[in-house]
Amino acid sequence: MEKLLEIKNLKTYFYTDEGIVKAVDDVSLKINKGETMCIVGESGCGKSITAMSILRLIPNPPGRIEGGEIVFEGRDLLKLSEEEVRSIRGNEISMIFQEPMTSLNPVFTIGNQIIEAIMLHQNLSKKAAVEKAVEVLKLVGIPRADEIINAYPHELSGGMRQRVMIAMAMVCNPKLLIADEPTTALDVTIQAQILDLMRKLKEDTKTSIMLITHDLGVVAEMADYISVMYSGKIVEEAKVLELFKNPLHPYTSGLLASKPQIHIDKEKLYAIPGQVPSSFDLPKGCYFYPRCERAMDICEQCAPKLKQIHDGHYVACHLYGGEENE
Amino acid sequence: MNDVILSVKRLKKYFPIRAGVFQRTVGFVKAVDDISLELKRGETLGLVGESGCGKSTTGRTILRLIEKTDGEVFFEGKDIYRLKREELRRLRPNMQIIFQDPYSSLNPRMTVGEIIGEALIEHKVADKNTVEDKVQEVLEMCGLSLFHMKRYPHEFSGGQRQRIGIARVLALKPKFIVCDEPVSALDVSIQSQIVNLLCELQQKFHFSYLFISHDLSVVKHISHRVGVMYLGSLVELADKKEIYTNPLHPYTQALLSAVPVADPTVQRVRNILEGDIPSPANPPKGCKFHTRCPYTKDICRAEVPEYKNVGNNHFVACHRIGR
Q1: Do B276 and A191 make contact, defined as CB atoms within 8 angstroms?
Q2: Quick check: B269 contacting A, CB < 8 Å?
Q3: Residue B69 to residues B16, B35, B263, Cα–Cα distance (Å)
Q4: Which among A260, B29, B255, B295 counts the fewest CB atoms within 10 Å?
Q5: Is the pTM of this model over 0.95?
Q6: How far is A244 from chain B, CA to nearest CA, in Å?
Q7: What is the model's pLDDT at position B2?
């Protein structure tokens, strides 16, 4: 498989009055062409910040990318000028956000906002841009696209707004679509529609998708490859079937066991004890150590590195040997 | 065990829509439209539906936190809408609510001890001398420590705050609790802690829960019976097992098939619903679901289907069933 994007040792820190928050701490991952890569984790684990770092959308101050490389088609995005990054944003890499109401501008029509992106990136005339906008709205399954184009965001429902966001993101045929919790704010029946749409678009356009979510159900349905994050670090990554069948890290298996399943009956849910540690007060060794049921002495002392256990299955845990990831 | 603690009969709650200079009523949002249900002691009834279908309003109208438009609510045989203010107040400790958002339902200026203690003193469950012991007792039951009593809500994480909310309710020793999306704002690993806590407390104290949630997996885990709402009405209600294995209403079928399963080896046939939920201010005539239903016939557009028992205490409102 050909690599589209590779992140190497990314470090994104936030400098606050209370101290340094290592939101993304030495994260490496890659996204192959035509693949859906999912980042799973609980709130505050750094999954959104990883995505924002790719597009260099980290507000500075307080945030800063402190190190690492983000290689997209041979270029390091972190070394590009602001001008060059702008030509990539929305054109080659685009992003959809969780809350479609806050990411659409309420004072402009839907059409206006889509056309803006087209004209900015593709040098089309206004008329051609309008046609293209209608076409892309039809593509994402919006009925009466030629009327909706003149509607304002508040006139549309949540599911429709998310469709508009996807239309906007797809209009320049990006190579990578970053979707940050795209269905979290939606109802299940609408979520099913949107996930279905994303799958269809991926097949038709061969766009790679980086999907960020906390919902393991969504992951199981969408992902080819999964990275699990905990407190700013990747603790496990593997292909989707492998990860669900054979989760290695105690956090991953705990997460899978604690989710009630609609097709399985369980007497009692497993619960991971304790809470996610505060970013200001992280444990010295493995960040998961205080909550881990299989913790050993070494876990308290030194942080485990991400290691390959078998083909394409990486885990950062002292329970496993295996060769070290370079 | 099998006695009915709560009985709701044809409950309706309409919110007026006002417009114009004189704020004339131009229509109604039928948030709760003719709902009937019963809840037994020690039982959990799950109420599911999509946002805006009226599940929360149902919960609040049952507790008389907002006034009904029509219908009756019997709590232990008494119609709570016929009670006088003082009588209702005396009944309050028996029927409580746990809210979704643990951030906005706790007073930021009060310590946890005060938050829980206030309810105890207000309802004369404890006096000033015994209140501290009582608070300690419930905090421990909810998995919190004694030193937490002197802390303020902002010092806690989401899961801990939800525990405080539960402790506050638990302190009053209620018989019936409305749980309004109690785990929706929490992360998966914390969610299961709270769900387990609610289950344990129910076994210990025989609480009856009305568990409102949009998450069908959680509802399936915690409930004994499940009701499905669509646009203010119950479309189906049955035993948990029955409804998840043999859903009759097309909406329930679609809802269940839309839930993502956390197992990539499970291949499912999905029936994806078209379109959005209609506005509750202007619901479709006849069967409210007919605009999205794959089996719509003429009768669905014309007549409201009757909500009836099709055997085995399986209630459903659909023209396709029982004809």
Answers
A1: no
A2: no
A3: 11, 12, 45
A4: B295
A5: no
A6: 7
A7: 60
